[in-house]
């Protein structure tokens, strides 16, 4: 590997430094914006997709009749 140059790291901007610091110190709960969106296990895939699109979110929790988490339906 003759001629290989070491990678130069760009100096992080003040904004990116704040983001990195927040990632290290802020609890996940600080990101919560409201109650979780849930659907029942009997919901169709189409209903789940419409829920994602209508609420502009990336996932919904699938809750059983007992209210316990049964799964997570995501856009991926």
Word description of this protein:
The longest helix is centred in the first third of the chain and has 12 residues, at 14-25. The protein has 2 helices and 3 strands; from the N terminus they run αβαββ. By secondary structure, the protein is an alpha+beta fold. The two termini are 39 Å apart. The protein has a domain at 35-76: CBS-domain, CATH 3.10.580.10. The chain has helices at residues 14-25, 45-55; strands spanning 38-39, 59-63, 69-74. Strand 1, helix 2 (45-55) and strand 2 form a beta-alpha-beta unit. Helices cover 30% and strands 17% of the residues.
Total number of beta strands: 3
What structural class is derived from the secondary structure elements?
alpha+beta
Task: Strand order, main sheet: write it out.
Answer: 1-2-3
CATH topology of one domain: CBS-domain
Layout of helices and strands, plus pairs?
Blueprint: H1 14-25, E1 38-39, H2 45-55, E2 59-63, E3 69-74
Parallel strand pairs: 1-2
Antiparallel strand pairs: 2-3
List keywords for this structure.
76 residues; single chain; alpha+beta; 3-stranded mixed sheet; CBS-domain; 2 helices; 3 strands
Task: Write a short abstract of this structure.
This protein has 76 residues and is an alpha+beta fold.
């Amino acid at each position: 590997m003759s001629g290989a140059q070491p990678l130069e790291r760009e100096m992080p901007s003040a904004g990116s430094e704040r983001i990195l610091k927040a990632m290290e110190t802020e609890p996940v709960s600080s990101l919560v914006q409201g109650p979780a969106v849930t659907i029942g296990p009997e919901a169709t895939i189409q209903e789940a997709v419409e829920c994602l699109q209508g609420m502009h979110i990336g996932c919904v929790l699938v809750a059983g009749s007992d209210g316990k988490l049964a799964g997570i339906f995501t856009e991926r």
